[in-house]
Amino acid sequence: MNWAEKYRPKTLNEIVGNERAISQLRDWADKWEKRLTPPKKAVILSGKPGVGKTSAALALANEYGWPVIELNASDVRSASKIQSMILPSVTNETFSSDGKFLPSKRGGRKLIIFDEADNLYETSSGGEKKDGEYTDKGGKKALVDAIKVSKQPIILIVNDYYALTKGSGSPLKDICLNIRFYEAHPNQIADLLKDICRKENVNVHPNVIKTIAEKNNGDIRSALNDLQAICIGKRIVDMKDIDAIGFRDRNQEIFDFLRELFRSKDLKNIRRRLFELGESPDNLIMWLDENLPFQYIEPQDIANAYDFISKADIFLGRIYKRQQFDLMTYASELMCGGIVVSKSRYYPVAKYNFPFWLSEMKRSKQNREIRDDLCNKIGKMLHISQNKVIELVFPYFKHVFKNNYTFAKEMIKKMDLTEDEILLLVDNSQDLAEKLLLEEDQEREEKNLMQILEENEEVEEDIEERKQMKLLDF
After folding, report:
1. 3-state secondary structure of 120
2. 124 or 465: which leads in pLDDT
3. Residues 6+ apart with CB under 8 A from 355
4. What are all long-range contacts of 249-258, with beta carbons under 8 Å and residues at least 24 apart?
5. Three-class SS of 373-386
6. Which tens digit of pLDDT belongs to each residue from 272-300?
7. How far is the C-alpha of 412 from the C-alpha of 442, rounded, in Å?
8. What is the reported pLDDT for 444?
9. Residue 203 — left, alpha, or beta (φ > 0 → left; ψ -120 to 50 → alpha)?
10. Class assignment of domain 3-124+135-180?
11. Angle, alpha carbons 384-411-396 (nearest 5°)
């Protein structure tokens, strides 16, 4: 059985990450449960594939004991199908699993889940899809009408919120609550993978779990599939087994996107590629900022492009300040579209660079981990939190350690400092660190030697005592 299905969350508390989204979803469901029809009868769960949208919807239904009606936009698109399949579901009453009638006035609920709702478009009347030509056969309008008269909770699941709400889907912005799901942190995914390994009785090397969690870019479903693929038929999995699965080269995907962005003038194509890329705008803006000066030559083109990037940056600031995450798409399109329209001519392909800030963060990650471990030791010694040590104590501790030789030697012993921790405290001064470590090793050897001598003396005394006892017995 597929592990993604086998270990699909049964309750909202089991969803990995997205605590804010889960809280919003539960608040909305509570109103239905308390017979208080919420102002917005439907919820749109939006976000990249694999982040837990469908799992959250099914977990919600299971937690609240609601029967589920699952529909997919690939099967139900036209107005006639929505009217014949969704409209009766949202207006009719429901029954319990044992056939008992549950009227909505007495709290009887069923959950309608409409997956891939952003695919609500139809091909042209000629049958085959022509260049960008679509005709809306009333699917979105019928969905809007069904939500307005609904007596039951509805969840629409989409990857692209904009695709659902454009055109005749615009009213959905007002009658639906948009809840955005984001990629889970690698540490959260790693914890989930470890738990599944325990349940499957498979001993997987920690670095294998860490690699899978990091390489799947927040896609929980893909991480579970990779874990299952590498564990099939095994009880022990180590690092050499990691080659059995291929990973997405995320940087290469971004480089390919940049190549099109800086050379193309096709806004429609760039918007499509932007959606396929699925990169968060706060990361994407760093890639654009780093590479723009090397791609455009004309000063006015560079100035115009940076003007759009700066406006997108203002957008991002307001998004995080006001928690309006549904505006993320606009920020991405503003910065990328702005770069496209700013070029006055075509430019030759130039080398693309990894964002300096991200590379510095990557290089400093190990130092931050060493610092955190060190501050944790200091915190335990002083009986204060690690955060307090970082904010208030660490700079002074480091200054005294570096300039007071006696204090440094005492702290090395007391906290059992590692070589990396000592190097951090002396600002990577190899000479001072080696001197401290050399003396520490010498003292440790002397202490071990003294301990051996003492043990030998005790043995000799014991032998002598036994000899005397034998003489007395004799």
Report:
1. coil
2. 465
3. 286, 287, 289, 290
4. 250/217, 251/354, 253/277, 254/279, 254/287, 255/352, 258/287, 258/288, 258/291, 258/295, 258/352
5. HHHHHHHHHHCCCH
6. 888 777 777 888 899 899 999 988 989 99
7. 13
8. 59
9. beta
10. alpha beta
11. 60
Mean pLDDT of 443-471: 64
Residue 231 and residue 204 in contact, taking contact as beta carbons nearer than 8 Å:
yes
Q: Is the pTM of this model over 0.70?
A: no
**Cα(130)–Cα(121) distance, integer angstroms:** 13
Kindly report the average pLDDT of the chain as a whole number. 79
- Return the pLDDT at 1: 65
Residue bearing tokens 């006639």: 80
Question: Measured between alpha carbons, how far is 420 from 380 in angstroms, rounded to an integer?
Answer: 19
d(CA 37, CA 305): 47
**DSSP-derived secondary structure letter, 104:** G
The DSSP secondary structure of 270-335, one letter per residue, reads HHHHHHHH---HHHHHHHHHHHHHHH--SHHHHHHHHHHHHHHHHHHHHHHHHT-GGGHHHHHHHH
**Cα 428–Cα 379–Cα 373 angle in degrees, nearest 5:** 45
Nearest-5° angle of CA 63, CA 65, CA 71?
95
Lowest mean pLDDT among 88-102, 176-190, 280-294: 88-102
Instruction: Tell me the backbone φ, ψ of residue 156, rounded to 5 degrees.
Output: -105, 130
pLDDT surpasses 50 at 128 = no
Residue 96 and residue 102 in contact, taking contact as beta carbons nearer than 8 Å: yes
Distance CA 252, CA 273 (A): 14
Residues 445-456: pLDDT tens digits?
556 556 666 666
Q: What is the pLDDT of residue 143?
A: 84
Q: CATH number for the 186-244 domain, one of 1.10.8.60, 2.160.10.10, 1.10.10.350, 3.30.470.10?
A: 1.10.8.60
Q: Find out whether 433 and 426 touch, Cβ atoms under 8 Å.
A: yes
Q: Does the pLDDT at position 125 exceed 70?
A: no
Beta strand segments in 161-277, E? 176-180, 203-204, 236-237
Residue 158 — φ and ψ, nearest 5°?
A: -140, 155
Inform me whether the pLDDT recorded for 239 exceeds 80: no
Give the strand order in the sheet containing 68-72: 68-72, 111-115, 154-158, 42-46, 176-180
Amino acid code (one letter) for 26: R
- Res. 411: pLDDT tops 60: yes
Per-residue pLDDT of 70-92, as tens digits, reads 887 656 655 666 766 666 666 66
